[in-house]
Amino acid sequence: MKKLIMIILSGLLMLACGKQGSVSNKETGGTAPAEKTYKIGITQIVTHPSLDLAKEGFKKALEEAGLKTEFDEKNAEGSMANANLIATNFKSDKKDLVFGIATPSAQALANNISDIPVIFSAVTDPESAKILNQNVTGTSDRVDNIGEQLDLLLKLNPNAKKIGVLYNTSEQNSLVQVKDIEKIAKEKGIEVVLQGVTAFGELAQATKALLSQVDALYIPTDNLIVSGIKLINSEAIASKKPVIATENSSVELGSLYTMGIDYFELGKRAGQMAVEILKGKPASEIPFEISDKKILYVNEDTAKALGFDIKNPAFAGATIVKTKN
């Protein structure tokens, strides 16, 4: 009897061991490996509605794919030193994949990580930023409609001769855009007045100085500048000068208009790339993409404050928004 009991106990023990690390599969009557939880690091250079939308779009894509994920979300608060520290921590933590939002954060990941897939979004020019390593891909927010943006300005104000461009002199993505703006503005007979800044504290004075010299402001997708867009819009409205933005959240915060991109969809496409990689496709086989979906957004409150009729034919087909408090 004792021997029989030992045999039964041994059998039960073997069954129990066989169930560890597995889940039942009712369709096959067997077992399957427990679902993997993917550790994903997310880093963005600053807090801003557009960058936040890219992050939410990214997470939505993974949710829709049904992947089990554990997100580690970090914000560098505008500091490149912080961005690099976040990247090295993600590397040592052996994340399954990392996501960098905006050029500085993407550069930090690409420069510090070579053995983990890196996805980026909201990067204007990944080539000049030198982030396109074998383990890196993502989505760019470079807009190729500067000419259309300026054409709309000239329809609203045919006498516009000068536009001011605020930009961070240390952001690579901004330097690329400044060259594009200068080139296209010159073709349209518009002079560009540049105003570079290096810190948020310089923004108020720089904005006032620039507004006194120009007919309108053109804001590139610059992380430092866009983080202060409410201040810029307030000063511009007080000066009766329109602000042309490059993404819709700035219009919701008071810029007059943009033919901008949808950052949620931009981030979502990056998330779809991440899903492909987590399912086994090498990042090197997924080329980076530039968004080609542009929408005209116009701020009704700002238009009224500046004396523009929201029914102006120049605004035909626009998505009309009001200023968010």
Which short descriptors sum up this protein?
elongated; alpha/beta; 42% helix; 4-stranded parallel sheet; 6-stranded parallel sheet; 325 residues
How would you characterize this protein structure?
- It is a single chain.
- The protein has twelve helices and 15 strands.
- With 325 residues, it is of the alpha/beta class.
- Strands 4-3-5-6-7-13 form a six-stranded parallel sheet, with helices on both faces.
- The longest helix has 18 residues, at 2-19.
- Residues 12-32 have low confidence and may be disordered.
Tell me briefly what this model is.
By secondary structure, this protein is of the alpha/beta class.
Strand order of the largest sheet: 4-3-5-6-7-13
* Span of the ends, CA to CA: 80 Å
Treating each run of at least 4 consecutive H or I residues as one helix, how many helices?
12
User: Measured on Cα atoms, how large is the radius of gyration?
Assistant: 25 Å
Q: Structural class of the helices, strands and pairings? A: alpha/beta
Unreliable spans are 12-32
The total beta strand count reads 15
Please write the string of helix (H) and strand (E) elements.
Answer: HEEEHEHEHEEHEHEHEHHEHEHEEHE
Q: How large is the share of residues in beta strands?
A: 15-25%
**Backbone shape:** elongated
Summed over residues and divided by their number, the pLDDT gives a mean of: 89
Q: How helical, in percent, are the residues?
A: 40-55%
Major β-sheet profile: 6 strands, parallel
Blueprint of the fold:
Elements: H1 2-19, E1 22-25, E2 30-33, E3 37-44, H2 49-64, E4 68-75, H3 80-92, E5 97-101, H4 103-112, E6 118-123, E7 136-140, H5 146-156, E8 162-168, H6 172-187, E9 191-197, H7 203-211, E10 216-218, H8 223-227, H9 229-238, E11 243-244, H10 248-252, E12 257-261, H11 263-278, E13 289-290, E14 294-299, H12 300-306, E15 319-321
Parallel strand pairs: 3-4, 3-5, 5-6, 6-7, 7-13, 8-9, 8-10, 10-11, 14-15
Antiparallel strand pairs: 1-2, 12-14
